[in-house]
Amino acid sequence: MEENFLLHTNGARAIYDAVKDLPLIDFHNHISVSDIAADRRYEDLCDIWLSCDPYKHRLMRICGIDEHYITGDASGFEKYSKFCEIFPLLAGNPVYDWSRMELSRIFGIEELPSKDTARVIWDTANERLRSSEYSTQAILSRFCIEYQSPVAALTDDLSCFDGKSTAPSLRGDNLLLPDEKLLERLKKETGKEITDTDSYIAAVSLLLDRFSAAGCRFADHSLDTGFFEGEQGAKKAELLCRLGVEYAARGWTLLLHIGAKRKTSERLARLAGPAGGYAAAGKSFDTDALCDLLGSMETRGGLPDTVLFPLNMSDQAVLAVMQGSFSEDGTLSKVQLGPAWWWCDHAFGIEHTLSSIASFGVLSAFIGMTTDSRSILSFVRHDYFRRLLASWIDTQNTKGDWALTPPLQAEIARRICYENAKEKIKIRGAKQ
After folding, report:
1. Which of 44, 102, 134, 412 lies in disulfide reach of 377, CB 3.0 to 4.6 Å?
2. Is 152 helix (H, G, I), strand (E, B) or coil?
3. Tens digit of pLDDT for each residue in 208-255?
4. pLDDT at 432
């Protein structure tokens, strides 16, 4: 990759120089902690670069490639080759940029993937994967990760987390519609009888303490399209409100991923499983209900710091306004619009997010980037974000006559890329 990729001016390059070597705080991802603990070795380039990446799978489907070569039983090389065949046609999609960055940053490979270059890239990468320098931990060490927070369910084994550089982020969706299996597991884990909502929250609370002891600072919930609808929606909202108070008591930050439409193609759901890359953005979200939820937490014991991730880009401006609707003395940006998420995580989406925050909130309070990915190679996206941020700040400072000096531009970029996220992982409260 070119040294000045996405950096088109001297001003952008100067801002980027101020943030490019900052440590990474990745506060929400789906990396396999067991792979990290076991220092997993990868079989081949397909294993590390393609098999675990539903973003790439989605583009292969759009290009008409048979599912046999995506999640089927074709060989690793056959799947990889099919992806290389379409790769030059993917220009404009962020996967095109990320993939080139992954090959360049991790493998030192600069060739553009294509039908003609597929074999040489395959052979070069596989030779390097045989080296101990390409184990999971060795690859992660190249990214200067200060703190990362892979998701874990409440009853998961947390022994693989070191509680320092790698700590769990609670994945709490199953807590809002607890089934008999979860209730039995809670009873077994806590020794508590669960007879009503109060006893259920008390049992959950005991395991939340276990997460805190493992270094947890974030809890994640999906507010998919239609979340608040009907009697079931009211029950979920009530439990989320009760849990939010618990999170606030522990000084955690609540991450709300909003507006995904997960039920689309039943055929692909059967073939590819729940994370197959076929979800869509839902309709504009019910902000009245969301405000009621956050307000209820606030009045009933504690609103945690909250980051809002809308999948429908039309909701970004509306949710950015909430930065001024909920506040707390001494807390930076109690509620804020989060980084461009999922299908929005590209140049257009990132720049739209930055514009929304700057226009309706306070840009310098933005929590910045997280990968929200299953691939260990996805940490290159922090560099992608930093380059786009540097260019965007330089453009706005010039076009908008911000009159910010170079040191001030760099300070804002450092806050967004590192300092604000670092502030969020501090404990700001303790359970009474």
Report:
1. 102
2. strand
3. 999 999 999 999 999 999 999 999 999 999 999 999 999 999 999 999
4. 35
- Bridge-based pairing state of the strands 253-258 and 260-261: unpaired
What residues have CB less than 8 Å from 82, skipping those under 6 apart? 60, 65, 69, 70, 74
Beta bridge partners of 261: 280
| All residues at 6 or more sequence positions from 155 whose CB lies less than 8 Å from its CB, including other chains | 182, 185, 186, 189, 207
- Rounded to the nearest angstrom, the gap between the alpha carbon of residue 319 and the centroid of all alpha carbons in its chain is 18
- pLDDT confidence of residue 271: 82
CB 7 within 8 A of CB 16: yes
Query: What's the pLDDT tens digit per position in 320-342?
Result: 999 999 999 999 999 999 999 99
Tell me the C-alpha distance between 183 and 196, whole Å: 11
Edge to edge, the sheet with strand 24-29 lists 24-29, 145-152, 169-171, 218-223, 253-258, 305-310, 335-337
Cβ neighbourhood burial of 188 (10 Å; 0-12, 13-18, 19+): exposed
